[in-house]
Each structure stands twice: as structure tokens, then as C-alpha cells.
Known about the structure:
The protein is α/β, with parallel strands linked by helices and 369 residues long. It has helices at residues 25-28, 31-34, 44-58, 79-92, 106-118, 132-138, 176-192, 195-209, 213-233, 249-258, 267-284, 290-302, 314-321, 351-360, and strands spanning 2-6, 13-18, 38-43, 65-70, 99-104, 125-129, 143-148, 151-158, 163-167, 333-339, 342-347. It folds into two domains: 2-173, Rossmann fold; 176-360, Dehydroquinate synthase-like - alpha domain (Dehydroquinate synthase-like, alpha domain). Helix content is 46%, strand content 18%. A seven-stranded mixed beta sheet has the order 1-2-9-6-5-3-4, with helices on both faces. The two termini are 39 Å apart.
Amino acid sequence: MRKINLRLGSRSYPIYIGHDIIDRIADFVKPPLLKRPILIVTNKKINALIGRKLAKRLLSITASVHTEVVPDSERAKSFGVYNRIIAHLSKIGRKEIPLIIALGGGVVGDVAGFAASTYRRGIPYIQLPTTLLAQVDSSIGGKVAVDIPQAKNMVGSFYQPRTVISDTKVLKTLPDREIRNGMAEIIKYGVIRDASLFKYLEKNLKGIMGLKRACIETVISKCARIKAAVVEKDEFDVKGERAILNFGHTFGHAIEASFKYSKKYTHGEAVSIGMVLASEMSLKLGLINKSEVIRIKRLLKRAHLPLKAKRINFKKVLYALNFDKKFSGGTNRFVLPRKIGQVGLVEDVPEFLIETVLSESLYPQNMLF
């Protein structure tokens, strides 16, 4: 098992990464935190696989364990689901401050964390991420939110969990598409901060996607360390440091919003397309060498991630881009790669260049590899 400490003063917390460790939750969480009413927020599938067993385990510690089952899709990040969680908390936490356990992927972590951040102006919560994407990215750093029709994560807050417990054993339950979904974020980390990680992915991709224990624990730990280091420097996303985590997300979120968060593209698939678009934009601006773009595209393709979007609606994507939280004062801002291992923020990109890059993502073009 590996342990990473995210240091934020009084809001510091540990991140545990290991195989078959969920049952050991009492070893990782201070006893007083568990001896209170607990609400497990999860989805139907995870509840059947893990949630009921976890609830039974927790009943040996506290007398009040409850479960709120939410939809298994981006639809869970809605005010309707948020209201259900708040109503459940109000029933079980009349005399004591309850604890939320977010058991699931990034969607569950976001809506459960947002509920935790607002109920009674903040109650404790624990992240138990069950998807690859959540283990390497969304469970760490305290960004919690719900969606509105116009764009993702527009209503939210910064609210850190008390602990993150990433059990790699549960990844074996994931379909291949979910593994690919997480791979997009893993590749992102190599591009934005760690060229050696990118090389490791190039050499060990088969073992990683096959969930070989040593490989998967290595990449999850590397990504978690990068995320923790960035969050420590810029917890509230005001210094520009944390913005680099959004490489590929500006276009990716807009693509997701244009399809109304349907299953047409998963978050990772949309981010994959977004990373290609951002790389092409950087290339056209003369900020990156063509050979670097080739490597990024090649690795995404080897991970069976899409490089282009099909039947995209330009107007909807451009409309959604206007809601991006990285845009400021009417000026657009994109995270663009300079080389593998380094990205930068670029402001005021010409509208025609944005539209050109988007249009080229639709049609056959000369492949770079």
C-alpha cells in the first residue's frame, strides 16, 4: 500500500492507494469520524458490488449507516439528486453531524462532496473512488460541483475530503470503456507535468490497461502525487498553477455539454479529443514541435481513445465554451502544451483559430503518424 499526504494546513489529508483495502477503512480513518450517522452515496451497481458489504462493516463501528443510491451517469450531478442527498442527511443527522462516504466514480464524488460542503455549512466526507478516472484525478483536490444545462460544474465549491482511499481491486469490475476513460486523465498528467510518466505510459501501456498490479499502482500514485503537489500550491485555483490540470478540459467540457452529457462521449473521451484540439492549436500558434504532437496523438490512439469528434454541433460547442470557468473578463484562456511535460496558459486566442481547429476535428485530415 502507498500513502500520499496532501498538505493544506488544517485541511490536510492522506491518500491511500492499495489492493483490497476498502474493508480496512477503520485503519485509515480516525475512529471518532466513523462513530456518527453515516450516509453512503453510491450508484446501483457499486452498491451491489461493494456498498452493502461496506455498510455491514461500518455497522460494527456505528449504529447508524444509510445509503443513497444515485444515477450511474452525469445525470447524478443535478440539483434533484443534490436535494435528495440533503433530505436524507436531514433525517439521519438531527442530533449529530453526519459523515458522507462518496463510494463511486467522479460523478458520485462531485455531488456527494458538494452536498457535504453545503449541508450545515460543511460536514466531513470521505472519498472512496471506484473508477480509474476518479482514483487518479477527481477524488483528489476538493473540487465539488453539480452541472447546469449550459455547462459542467458551474455550481460548486472547494471542499476537501478527510481521506481518500483508492482500492485498485475494484478496478477489475470496470468495463474496458471505463479503463480508457481513466487513461485520458493519466495521459494528461504526463503531458502537463511529467515527461518520465509519459515515457512510462508509452512503454507499459498494455500492462496498465490490463490492470497489472505493479503498473496500475505506479501510475495512480504518480498522478496522485502530481495532483497533490499542484493543489498544495493553488488550492483555490487563483494563482494559475491549478489551471494546468484542465489541459484538454476546455474543449472536452464543451463537447460534453453540446451532447447534453449523454453517453455519446465519456468525460475521458471528450478530454482526449480536447487534448488533441489543444495540441493542434498550440502547433498552429508555433508553441510546440510537431513531433511532440505526434507522440501525444499516438499514445491516445494506442489507448483506444478518440482523436476527433463525430457530428459535433459547432454552435453548441462554441456556446458552451463561453461558460468555461477559465475564461476571464471576456477573454478566452486555453491550457496549451509547449512540450511533453510542460504546458502554459494562453489568453485571447483568435476566434477564427478556435473555429478552424474545431472544424478540422470533424473531417479526414493528414494523419501525423
